[in-house]
Amino acid sequence: MPIPEDVTGDEIDKDVRQELQSLPKTLAEDVAKNLVMVARLIDEDPEGAYGYSKVALRLASRVAAVREAAGFAAYANQKYGEALAEFRAARRMTGTVDLWPVMADCERGLGRPEKALDMAGAPEVHKLDKAGQVEMRLVAAGARRDMGQLDAAIVTLQSPELASNSVQPWTARLRYAYADALLAAGREREAREWFAKAVEADRDGSTDASDRLAELDGVEFVDALSEDVEDVEDAEDGADAAGESADAAPEDGDKD
User: Fold this and answer.
1) Residue 79 predicted with pLDDT over 60
2) d(Cα 208, Cα 214) in Å, to the nearest integer?
3) Which H/E stretch holds residue 208?
4) What band does 243 get if pLDDT is binned at 50, 70 and 90?
5) pLDDT at 256
6) Which positions ≥6 away from 156 have C-beta within 8 Å?
7) Are residues 103 and 84 in contact, defined by beta-carbon separation less than 8 angstroms?
8) How far apart are the C-alpha atoms of 93 and 104, rounded to whole Å?
């Protein structure tokens, strides 16, 4: 797959670059460039990211960072079985538990929420950092909802991190998930309160909490561009109708 000229491979994280030092220099550069493309495209063009991840995987399947990138690319394309296999491979290579929450979420994607809940109660969770533990809580709550256990999902999300007034990278998503679970349970007033709190914490627009809040408040958004197009079309229709009327009108010489 083509690599843009502005991609050098030096953009990758230093830890990944260190992993690639086990490869011949030219090969390491090629793998690095493909990993950069995975990171660049995974949000806006997941299919493209998946393609570059497969190239990197073909070049260096024994590098943990490559297996991890391939896992996230597959995950972004909802290829959960493939993603889980790659994450497991990366975990075997590194011995770390960082991927435990996303592995559990893959189990959800495969229709196995019970397995995800088992993983949420495993000893590995205690080895996660705070961000990882919050992510695991989100996955567990999602698994409860998959099983129709709304009240249990709400309780799962209730935690010191949710109650804290400090804003952390995970705060907006945690508050959003709590608000969404409350709304699903029919607790609209509380849901509105927590969507508002999610908006306060969502500084980079990672959720659509503001839209959900507006929806609860009965605010409707109008697409200005669509409205302009409709106005133009109405004007054109009016002009066409006027033209047809003029054509149909008899000339003076035709009057009786």
Assistant:
1) yes
2) 10
3) none
4) low
5) 42
6) 137, 140, 141, 144
7) yes
8) 18
